[in-house]
């Protein structure tokens, strides 16, 4: 493929600049910030994108429709969490998935959210 | 644009909020059993391969260790609503994998430490870890024989627990009993957070 941003590549800053260009300069979670329970959903049901490896396509099919956590994707792929995170990082770079990071309850107390969890467990 | 087919500015507001609760305790304390008792899916397993160069294994003193080890954690899910999903993680039984615990504990709502009264000391490391980290936790005493060797106060004393940490009796095989332990944990977390705000 010959996307314009390929010309941004240079030896020193190549991948960073390219990934910056691909995301239009928006910040997004880096691979390290993808948590076990970060939720993942495919941006589009279309898996006919250049650059997708078979594992990427399996992940995109899994996450079309209902979102899945990183842990669930790893368990279903039968791959380690580390390998799964790398594959998800590729998909993020390609903007083929969207993510939602978990709320950090320990760091940011949210009584309403806790109440919703409590009510939900009581209803089980 | 070459990004046709993808949203120009994807948000994440339509994805549910995910919350994490840990089920800890020594070997065979009933962690997987409790995850399975309340999860809507049968417990799944994720694995992490650790090489000898990882931090966790470096700390081993004088123990001959093969180059790679696999740490398994099992987990389950409770979908509370379209907007909210709770994941329950059984922590790895091997206490030496603290760095795995760090990822699990980060941002967690709290933890249930399962204690087996035949081997109470097996729950010391988990209690120490959550106390040290400031993670909200409760202790659930898993009664294996129905023989009540200890009551809640004796367990509290033996584990040297803060008076505010709830201790409940439970049977991890029972959905109702496991639900009760979870409810106690969430209430405890709410109480601690509200008193912290004041
Ligand atoms: N009687 C009784 N048996 C239990 C209870 N909870 C678990 N068990 C049994 O104890 C055994 C160990 O339970 P697990 O849930 O596998 O324990 P675990 O903590 O996941 O064990 P590891 O992952 O190996 O550390 C199983 O055979 C369970 O059926 C309980 O509350 N009462
Ligand atoms: Mg287990």
Automatic annotation (TrEMBL), chain A:
InterPro entries the record matches: DUF742 (IPR007995)
Q: Which domain of life is it from?
A: Bacteria
Task: Specify one Pfam family.
Answer: DUF742
Name of the protein described by the UniProt record: DUF742 domain-containing protein
TrEMBL record, chain B:
- Alphabetic keyword roster: GTP-binding, Hydrolase, Nucleotide-binding, Receptor
Domain of life, per UniProt, equals Bacteria
Q: Which InterPro entries match?
A: Gliding_Motility_GTPase, Gpn, P-loop_NTPase
Instruction: Please list which residues make up the signal peptide.
Output: none
Describe the family membership recorded for this protein in Swiss-Prot or TrEMBL.
Answer: Belongs to the GPN-loop GTPase family.
Q: Report what the protein is called.
A: Signal recognition particle receptor subunit beta
* UniProt organism field: Streptomyces iranensis
